[in-house]
Design goal:
The chain has 321 residues and is mostly helical. Helices cover 71% and strands 2% of the residues. The chain has helices at residues 2-22, 50-54, 57-62, 65-73, 77-89, 97-176, 184-204, 218-224, 227-230, 234-240, 253-263, 271-282, 289-320; strands spanning 209-212, 285-288. Strands 1-2 form a two-stranded antiparallel ribbon.
């Protein structure tokens, strides 16, 4: 019967092993880096002071502020001004053919630049979407690792409970055969119950981590107004920080995105999420599943901001016709 009394110690050794193996700091040895395609971007544009652009009576009478900002972002203001001048001359009967060809040439140049601008903005949006998809993949891997550990601990709790029942039953049989168990039954029952409860509780506390090193930190770029952190093209960054693109208000898209971040319970309007935030701003770090989910939500709000800029790009084309 001595072996029966030794089995509880073996059970605790097994419990310790399962508990420790379930507590793995990170699921990856090398930081996860999401890499996406490079952005197709317009060459560094000549961006004029917007106050001077708005002071131009010809431009402001024909184009909305949002359209002028969009044109300025891609260095088109001087071309648009010349285009409007030639259009006025074209109304005259003696409009020279060479000027007519010049008008067509400028119009083609403006269209080409706007097309490239649209392509740049779409590629910025695609890169944000790419980062979200890869973060979703990492979150899924972390979720599977958490579920695996939770199942292991839950199964261990069931095994310990079953083993305790078998031990108690064995001692009772031995007692009928003349064995003196003393208080072994009570001790084993209590110990087994405590061990099973511990393992069950431990399964609810599983929260594995993953090493993450974003190639570009869009979150820090928006929070700190740092174009380089997110590697944004000059034109896109100008548009993100310009007023009048959202319903003619003076709030920039970047400010609107930040407002959404801080007002949403699923983002930064949460004490728990604000505790995560320093790591997200740093970029590289050890992330829980919840931290990855927060980063995904923040990036999705940025994607909505990019879509708002694209709407302004369509508007300037409509106003030119």
């Amino acid at each position: 019967m001595n072996i029966l009394l030794k089995i509880p110690w073996l059970l605790f050794v097994a419990i310790f092993a399962v508990s420790c193996s379930a507590h793995i700091r990170t699921i990856n040895d090398q930081p996860f880096e999401y890499r996406c395609l490079d952005i197709v971007q317009v060459q560094e544009p000549e961006i004029l002071p917007i106050e001077k652009v708005f002071a131009d009576s010809v431009l402001i009478s024909r184009y909305s502020r949002a359209s002028l900002i969009a044109g300025n972002a891609f260095g088109l203001i001087n071309q648009v001004r010349e285009y409007e001048h030639l259009r006025e001359l074209a109304k005259q009967q003696d409009f020279d053919d060479s000027l007519r060809f010049k008008l067509i040439e400028i119009e083609d140049d403006i269209d080409e630049t706007l097309d490239l601008g649209m392509l740049e903005l779409i590629s910025v949006g695609n890169r944000v979407d790419c980062a979200i998809l890869q973060l979703e993949k990492l979150k899924s891997e972390l979720n599977r690792a958490n579920l695996k550990s939770q199942n292991s601990l839950t199964n261990a709790a069931v095994i310990v409970g079953g083993a305790t029942t078998v031990l108690v039953a064995g001692i009772l049989v031995a007692e009928n055969e003349g064995f003196e168990p003393g208080n072994a039954i009570d001790w084993i029952g209590v110990a087994g119950g405590v061990a099973a409860v511990y393992l069950a509780l431990r399964s609810t506390k599983v929260d594995k981590r993953a090493l993450l090193a974003p190639t570009r930190n869009v979150v820090a770029s928006f929070e700190n107004q740092d174009r380089n952190a997110g590697d944004f093209p000059a034109s896109t960054w100008y548009l993100l920080n310009s007023a009048y693109l959202i319903d003619s208000t003076e709030v920039s898209i970047r400010e609107k995105v930040l407002e959404n971040w801080y007002s949403s319970k699923t983002m930064l309007n949460s004490e728990e999420h604000m505790n995560y935030y320093p790591v997200l701003l740093e970029g590289e770090g050890v992330y829980t599943e919840g931290m990855i989910e927060l980063r995904i939500n923040l990036l999705e709000a940025v994607g909505v901001g990019i879509d708002l800029i694209l709407r302004s790009m369509y508007q300037i084309n409509l106003e030119r016709r």
